[in-house]
Queue: 4 jobs
Job 1
Amino acid sequence: MGDLSKQFETEMRAIYPQCAKFGYHPGYLLQLISDYGGVGAAKHLLASPPSDGFSRLALEQRLDLSVEAVVLKPQWQDLFDDAELSTARRRLKGTPYAG
């Protein structure tokens, strides 16, 4: 795993404790990261319909913790293709986290 991928995985894992602060425990996210790594987990989630976790984060007004918002940060965009970035933008359209 490249250095950028490792750094991305660290940021992905940091989502869990931030969510736990408001009573949400995204265990599925941690399982995906364990199974596929951070980049693989993000790609898996972007290739699937929006998750229940995305909906929960929207309800909590914390879409900044969504995988979609994370992948749109400039430092991570090289890890994803145009279609994946477009999916993330589309899901976040109309929110403060749209890239």
Note: The first helix runs from residue 3 to 13.
Job 2
Amino acid sequence: MHLIINWEDFLHHHWQKHPVLLKKAISDFINPVSPEELEKLVIEKTLDSQLIQRRHGKCQLVHKPFNGYASLGQRNWSLRVEAINHWHRAAEAFLSLFRVFPDWVTEELTVFFSVPGGGIGSQTKPSDVLVIQGMGRSRWRIGDRGSSPVFDYGQNDFSESIINEGLSSGDMLYIPKGFPHEAISSEATMSYCLNFWTDNSLRMIRNWTESLSDENHRGIEYAPSPDLLLRDDPTEILPQDIRALQDMMSQFLLQKREHLETWFVQEMSQTVYELPKAPAAKVYSVSQVQILLQQGHPLHRLMGLRMLHIGNRYFGTIDGHMLSHVIHDPDFMEQLTLLINKGYWYFQP
């Protein structure tokens, strides 16, 4: 499979601006997951999934355990499975096609298996999404931003479409955040949705300041400016008072820049989805890890684990090509052994 996309043109004209349908964006498309594999994974691994049924033209979530396709009939339903890249090696490898985006920006891969008449109900999401059509055909309809401001799975109907097109294998549809959309399948289909990271500034500030408090960082004591001005009205807060407050906060942010970097990379290294468990293994010593690596035993990364760094500071991850240069570095090997013993990296039994 190969992507046939002018990424510079895409980022300049469409990213977080306008939806766009890219026909045959992926050549020689091969489904990373089959419907049978998906069914088996959901049942055996009890993956987080939602069954969506279409009744009287409306899609509804069905709140009952998934026990396989056999009891669902031949029409009007879809199975939605989140973070499939955490549980299926080919799905994780599929994401490598999209590493033009920073790893911390891409969230997870959601897969939909739909039978004829099944699909995705009208919804508006607070994040950008790339829809890649696998097997079969489905019709996607995109409304204009603002016509459905609610961010959820509810029935956010929209009357007019700015895109109303059928997608076939290898087609890709980009939907920026805030654009309502829906889909319906005319046959058995697999659709893959790559979701992108988004967060709220207030929540991020709160989480960062909480991490500062946990580590007993001291703030800057604030007092009125030494350039305090006399004023006719003592009840008035002047613009320069607010500027002094902003300057104090900016000064604190600059002082804590390194902590902010560390916190952000640690946050982005996490995932809200459960990670699979590594194969059972004994606890290794540093010397045992060195010997295994020198003997050529491959080291495998846990699927779904994010690999991020700032400069030469690595967070929860290493890259395989580095090992030959650092295998005799005691600090690095100690950290690597710790990650292996926690199950983030493992030697294949």
Note: The longest helix spans residues 239-255.
Job 3
Amino acid sequence: MTELKNHIVTSFDRDLEGIQAQIMKMGGLVEASIMEAATSLETRDVELAEKVRKGDKVVDALEEVLNDEAAQVIALRAPTASDLRVVLSVMRMSANLERIGDLSKNIAKRTDVLVQVPPVGDTATSLRRMAREVELMLKDALDAYIQRDDALALDVIARDEDVDKMHNTLFRELLTYMLEDPGNITACMHLHFIAKNIERMGDHVTSIAEQVVFMATGSIPHGDRNKSDETSSELGPQHIGNGV
């Protein structure tokens, strides 16, 4: 009986290592997609944008494989409460990573449109800086996962407020450009959607960090996130055309 139990534990550990390897591979691809999408916009590189769009299919495929493997582990290994928590958290993390990949693809799609019009100030560089902050948050969230470091994960959660503030600042800049010159409206609309996509990436990274805290402590961080996105309460780009 002891030998059988040890075999089951060893098999579970091996399966869990395989799932963890998949989530880290997926995370690495998504990290790269964030910066490549932002860089393609800043450098007006349509080939790099195309690479991001094609790469999203790989991320989607990895999520399917990971979910299948996780489901098999649950069905075949009957993990204990703590082990089940890990498997379920990884599945939630993979869903957030897949969504971030989708948002990177959306940015890359808009790059094809924006390269056909003149740049609007230094907004593309600002978007790249914002994306860089989200990429670093994701890197730290994945490191926190590997190390089961809830303190680092909580730090990632707190940094989402910085991303929101960057988004708010950029929104106001775009609003100014649109009011100064109606010819900027189309480009600024696309740039605002890109900024919103990056802000949403930060939310998904925060969700990943929350799952790390859950794995490490057994509980999700309490209280509402301190969101600093003020744009929803201000004059949105959808109204600009009516006032210009």
Note: The first helix runs from residue 2 to 43.
Job 4
Amino acid sequence: MHTIQVGEFKARFSEMIDSVRAGETIVVAYGRNQEKVAALIPYDQLPARQPRRLGLFAGRAGVSFADDFAITDDELLGA
């Protein structure tokens, strides 16, 4: 893991992206106290998203839509 200030990150952006593509994690620090504000990680290291649960109906109900189902935003919102 490599920590870099915002100004240096901006100046060396392409180089930093190449480092991330090579598997390195880049942490971006900001301000006089070098507060860590962001981390760039290789895309394949993102945690997998969990499927959405149906709240109170989890385990009791399910939903599926027909392939030809279509609704506009206005219809959904009742406008």
Note: The mean pLDDT is 89.
